[in-house]
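TICKET: design request
STATUS: open
ATTACHED STRUCTURE:
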C-alpha cells in the first residue's frame, strides 16, 4: 500500500558555490554520502532534491528532521536508495513505512527526485 509520494526539483546552479564550501556540505549531507573527490553539482542537487522529496512523502516536511539524517547512497548496481537515522528513521517507522522507492534524474540545469513510501499491506 502506498503511504506517501514526494517529488522535488532542484536547479543545479544553486549548488555551484557548495563545491568550495566544505562546512555547508558537512551540514546538509551524511558522512556516508560524501566523497569529496567525486562531488559534482549534479550530485549535490539530486541528493538535496531526494531529501526534499522524501520528507514530502513522509508528510512532515523537515519538522525535527535534519537533512544529514537522510543519506542517499547507491547499491552495487548504481541504484539510489535511502539510509535513514535519527528522527528521519523514527518518522518513517511511525508512518508504517516498509519500503522506499527513489528515482533520480538529471537534465542539463535541473535534477529531480521522485519518492514513493510503501507499507507491506
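STATUS: resolved
RESOLUTION: sequence designed for all positions
ATTACHED SEQUENCE:
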Amino acid at each position: 500500500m502506498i503511504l506517501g509520494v514526494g517529488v522535488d526539483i532542484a536547479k543545479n546552479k544553486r549548488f555551484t558555490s557548495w563545491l568550495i564550501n566544505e562546512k555547508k556540505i558537512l551540514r546538509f549531507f551524511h558522512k556516508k554520502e560524501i566523497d569529496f573527490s567525486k562531488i559534482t553539482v549534479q550530485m549535490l542537487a539530486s541528493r538535496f532534491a531526494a531529501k526534499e522529496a522524501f520528507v514530502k512523502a513522509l508528510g512532515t516536511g523537515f519538522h525535527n528532521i535534519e537533512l544529514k539524517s537522510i543519506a542517499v547512497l547507491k547499491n552495487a548496481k548504481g541504484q539510489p536508495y535511502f539510509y535513514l537515522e535519527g528522527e528521519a528513521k523514527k518518522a518513517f517507522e511511525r508512518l508504517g513505512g516498509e519500503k522506499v522507492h527513489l528515482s533520480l534524474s538529471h537534465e542539463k540545469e535541473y535534477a529531480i527526485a521522485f519518492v514513493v513510501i510503501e507499507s507491506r499491506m
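CLOSING REMARK: The mean pLDDT is 94. Helices lie at 22-28, 41-58, 86-95.
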